[in-house]
Amino acid sequence: MVSSIVQYSIPHGLIGLHTSYGQKMLSEATVVNKNYTLHELKQIHPTYCGPASLAFLINAIHAMSYINLTKELINENDIVFGKQKDFFQHININETGMTIANISSLTKLLGLSVHSYYTINQMKPKKKEYDTTKLNAMLKSKEGNISLVKTKKNARELLIKNLKNPLSGVIANFNTSLLGYKIKYGHFSPIAAYHKNKDMFLIMDVWPMTPPAWVKTSRLFRAMATVDSDSNLPRGFLSVKVQIKNNHLNKH
């Protein structure tokens, strides 16, 4: 993170991680991966929040050795210009960023396992806003692990389940304005922890001007249950895991 960049103020209802209360919540967290909070990573390019989040996650779950890397990733450029660079020649990332499907493909290319969760608000369905035919075809396809999340409760359970696994991590895709920020855009960032009493998740925001913050599950769910105009599909989150192979186990 560049210290000279002025950060956005934390919206009402969110709790900044680097406040005294935010740190207290971290110490009380029901589920937490402190590797995220010890080594924060911020994106360099305006539309590289997806690759930056993936680099952040890889460092946090110590997945480097599983994808044949010898050290931590410094920023998204280590992925964008790495051995999978040919992937980016087919994506107009400089103008539009990436979709959940793009991040899923990139994750698989790196040799990691990924499950994509597309989130809709069952209480306030707005099916006309996204391509239901396309979504249903993807859900029925055997090409990848894809699920639909319809309730806040279901989202909470799945996020906690993945956070508890030391070999997995979660990247959320959400609309920033529904978290309370004045700017409105789709964004990716990893989730690092959950505080049960407050029912809040810790988002380690990769945008340089947005500090990490605790967010109510209900607010995060609403922000994920929005439509990505590039894919014409709901946003949601991705669960990324290392794929343990027998030859890797034999080395330890």
Task: Describe what you observe in this structure.
The protein is built from ten helices and eleven strands. A hairpin with a 4-residue loop joins β9 and β10. Residues 1-5 and 247-252 have low confidence and may be disordered. The strands form two sheets. Strands 1, 2, 3, 4, 5, 6, 7, 8 and 11 form a nine-stranded mixed β-sheet that branches. It is globular, with a radius of gyration of 17 Å. It has 252 residues and is of the alpha+beta class. The protein has helices at 20-28, 34-38, 49-60, 77-80, 93-96, 100-110, 132-140, 152-164, 217-224, 246-249, and strands at 15-16, 31-32, 113-119, 145-149, 168-175, 186-195, 200-203, 213-216, 227-228, 233-234, 236-241. The protein starts with 14 loop residues before the first strand and ends with a helix.
Topology:
Blueprint: E1 15-16, H1 20-28, E2 31-32, H2 34-38, H3 49-60, H4 77-80, H5 93-96, H6 100-110, E3 113-119, H7 132-140, E4 145-149, H8 152-164, E5 168-175, E6 186-195, E7 200-203, E8 213-216, H9 217-224, E9 227-228, E10 233-234, E11 236-241, H10 246-249
Organism: Hydra vulgaris (Hydra)
Protein name: glutathione gamma-glutamylcysteinyltransferase
Keywords: Cadmium, Metal-binding, Transferase
